[in-house]
Amino acid sequence: MVNMFILFLMIASSCAVSWPSGKYSIPKPQTGCPSGWSEGWRYQDNEDTHNINSVTPSTGYHFFGTFNRNTKMYYCTKKTFSGSGKWPKGNYCIARKGGTCPSGFCTGSIYWDDQDSGNTNSHGGDLPDGVYNRNTKIYYCCRSDATSIDSYIDLPAREPFYLYKYTSTCQRVRGMTVRDEYLKMDDEDYRNSSSDNGCHPKKTDSTEVYYCYYYPSHIDPPPE
Q1: Model-level pTM?
Q2: Which Pfam families match (predicted)?
Q3: What tens digit of pLDDT does each residue of 91-137 get?
Q4: Closest-CA residue to 55 (of 163, 205, 184)
Q5: What residues contact residue 213 under an 8 Å CB cut-off, 6+ apart?
Q6: Which among 84, 123, 129, 88 has a CA at the least distance from the CA of 108?
Q7: What is the C-alpha to C-alpha distance for residues 131 and 138, in angstroms, rounded to an integer?
Q8: Per-residue pLDDT tens digits for 50-101
Q9: Closest CA to 144 of 111, 181, 108
Q10: Of 175, 186, 187, 215, which one's alpha carbon is 20 to 30 angstroms from that of 68?
């Protein structure tokens, strides 16, 4: 009974937390965006020849979008300065919106050299800061100032959301369980110019990016 009461207090406390003030963007999960946020999407025409796109896990991932030989990724964007407080110290990234990062973050980018021949890139709605033409460049805000790798931060724990993994394991969030997910987009084979700069999410090469999926600890785990 005591343990259940403590769990109830933890859930109630985490649910009272609001998103930090400022403008920023995060990947959209299948459960949808936070209330009042805008949505947008980016369709990337990936390599046609010997395409090696992949999502990990291959089934049971939680990105909202279309992931096959090409990629359509959706984003949730907070366009106003509403909210309370600053982003807490930790080890994680968000996508940049509004030209600057919130206090405490450093900025950087990832550039994808998308398919050259018959390129069908497109986009719509509100997206993170970036360049969306025949190729794709997205700007990020990252920080690595946690007091401990095992420290917890407070963010809204009412519904699932994504953050980007940065330099260590996924940042712990109070009231949430976290799992790693990965998205690989096979970019142009010929004269490839994909690159990255500054502070950006963790990735294994120019095309695979690491994400952290969070869901409330009091609900059943997502399917594997």
Answers
A1: 0.89
A2: ApeC
A3: 999 999 999 999 999 999 999 999 999 999 999 999 999 999 999 99
A4: 184
A5: 29, 62, 160, 162, 178, 179, 180, 181, 222
A6: 129
A7: 7
A8: 999 999 998 899 999 999 999 999 999 999 877 778 999 999 999 999 999 9
A9: 108
A10: 215
